[in-house]
Every structure is written in C-alpha cells, then in structure tokens.
Amino acid sequence: MLKKSRKANAEPKVSTNPVTMVDRTIIGDQIYIEGTIRGEEDLLIEGSVKGNIEMKAHHLTVGPKGQVEAEVRAANVTISGKLEGNINATGRVEITKAADFNGEIKAKSISVEDGAYLKAVIEMERESTQKAVPLGKPVEKAPYEPTKEPLVLAGKDSKGN
Amino acid sequence: MAASATGLNQKDMNQHLGLEGYTSNALKLFMEHLDRQPQSRLLDVGPVCQENISFFAGRVWKHYVCDMFIRLDRQIRKGDPVHQIWKELDYQPESFDGILVWELADRLDEQDVNRLVTLCHSMLKPEGMAVVMVMGDQTVSSETKAFVVGQNYRIYLRPQPHLNLPLRGRQNRDVLSMMSPFVPAKSFICRPGFMEFLFRRE
Lengths: 161, 202
Description:
- The complex is a heterodimer.
- By secondary structure, chain A is mainly β.
- Chain A has one domain (2-124).
- In chain A, 0% of the residues lie in helices and 49% in strands.
- Chain A is globular and about 40 Å long.
- In chain B, β6 and β7 form a beta hairpin.
- In chain B, the strands form two sheets. A six-stranded mixed beta sheet of chain B has the order 3-2-4-5-9-8.
- Chain B has one domain: Rossmann fold.
- The A-B interface holds A 97, 109-124, 126, 131-134, 137, 140-145, 147, 159-160 and B 5, 38-39, 41, 43, 46-50, 53-54, 57-58, 61-67, 70-71, 74, 88, 90-92, 95-96, 123, 146, 158, 160, 162.
C-alpha cells in the first residue's frame, strides 16, 4: 500500500537537503503502478512500477522487493532491488550488492557494492574533459540495443555530440 | 584503498596472496590506447567493483559493465548450462575500443572460452585491445578475485567470496593459443605464473 514514513531520527522541520527529507512515500510490495510518477519528496519502491519516475530534487530508493522498469530522473538513486531502465541523476547513484540493474546511468558519482548484478552503460559527469569529436565522423551505432522497445531519455547521447 | 568485503584491509589481503599490489603495465598501455580514441567505449566483464567504475568511467567516454563472473556463478549454482550466459553479451559488432577480460577465461572450459574469444573478437573494433590475465596454477588460491585498480595503475586483488567458480589454471601458452584470433601486443610477468597480456584485433 501507499504510505508515508517518518524517519526515526528526523527533525520536525523539513531539511533543505533532498536526501534527508523527513517524509517519503512508500510504494508497498503489493502495489503495481504503470505510468508516470512525479514527486516532490523521497520515494521508496517495494512494489512494481513500470513507466517514468521524475523526482528531480529527491531521492528514489528501489528496495529489496522493488521491481522497476522505468526511465528515472532523480537527484539521488539507491538500488537494492531490480531496476531495468535508464537513470539520469544529478547526484549519486548507489547500487548495493542486492541490486539487479540493467540500463544506462548518468550521474555525478556512482557507488557499487561487490556482488551487485550489473549490466550497465555508465557516464560520469565530468568537468571540461570532453574530447573533441572529429568533424564528419559517422554516427556510431550504440553497442547495446535492448531487446525491449527502448524508452527515450531526454539528453541521451548529448555528451560530446 | 577501501577495506575488502571480507573485512580484511587491502594490504593484509594482498600480503596474504603474495601480492603487495603491482603496477600494471598492460593496463597502462591499454588506457593509453583508449585515450587516443575520440569517443572511447570500454567493456568490463567483471567482477565489477566500485573503484574500477570510478577509474574507468572517469577516463572513457562510455563505460560498459556486464559482470559475467556473477552470471557464471548463478548459472553454475542453478545447474543450468553455462553457454546461456553469452546471450548477455548482446552488443553490436565492432562496438568497443577495449575489453577488460581479466581472468574470466580461466574460469571457463574450452568450449566456453572459444565462445568468449569469438564474442570479444566480434565486439572489438579493428585495432581494439583486450586485457587478459592468467594467474597460473601455483600463484594463489582458486578464490575469485577482482582486479581493483588504484592510483598509477596499481592493481590489488580483492577476493570475491560471493563467487564460487572453478579455476582452470591455464598456462601462458594456453592463453596465447586460445586468443589466436588476436595479435599478441604485449605480455608482462607480474610474478612467476602470473602474467598479463594485451591483445589487439587486426
């Protein structure tokens, strides 16, 4: 079920740091959602979600029971369950050893525990280190073509092009 | 260097293994090759670890990781045919400028080694390079280890206790034979029995 959680040591007022927001919504393990989720608070998914998740200033957690097939835009993302899709994070992506991830990750930083079940394309945000692309270079085919119909991610392959 | 998953620190672990870390000349040359590519694409077949993602993703344009070690381990645990794991390497031909094979080949039988080599040859671009390690049968225990890249191409071996994979104990000549579709570019002896190879696709 959908419910609010309040962290045990939370301050009574809302923190300015998105990762330590007092409230978060939990999608329970008996819930299946298909469509777009937009949010202005942190979200924990223990159920199943298919579609798009947009919470640009907040933290998405896919819990151990969570099964997500989605395009994700969030500040920070923690994966301890199954996630298939692309992640565009302005902050950190954490992949625990319980995770099963398949997709693209664009993030400022990434942490991965030994033992994570991972198939990914990783692009780390870098400052002014972009290599020049020769003019007239033919467009290269992406090495990985998902077996399922790909979901469009805004800004995909924009780096260096 | 971060503490290992088993709780021992990296220095203790490598002393235990008889390797106080080592500087990888093969990796240095490999990265120099990638640095010359305008939009370098690298494939790492694992074991995937935090340090290596930070290192490689910061150096190449796109860093692909597909942990074949953990897939192999799960397949063996389930008792399913090993060859089914190769469908995971479903990348387009000539996709990569470099592939980090590490010691995956030493965890496979002849049939699956041939499949791995064929796939790597297909996935590499012409002039693309592959890094292969062989630990030898006398070097260390059969425990699977991640080749953790530190500063200045220093490599440390971190045991992966969650992986239970057979070690074939291939020798240097076996590696050269199995990689016959490639041109041997360089090889380095890290210690007796433990070598690193750099192969190039023509």
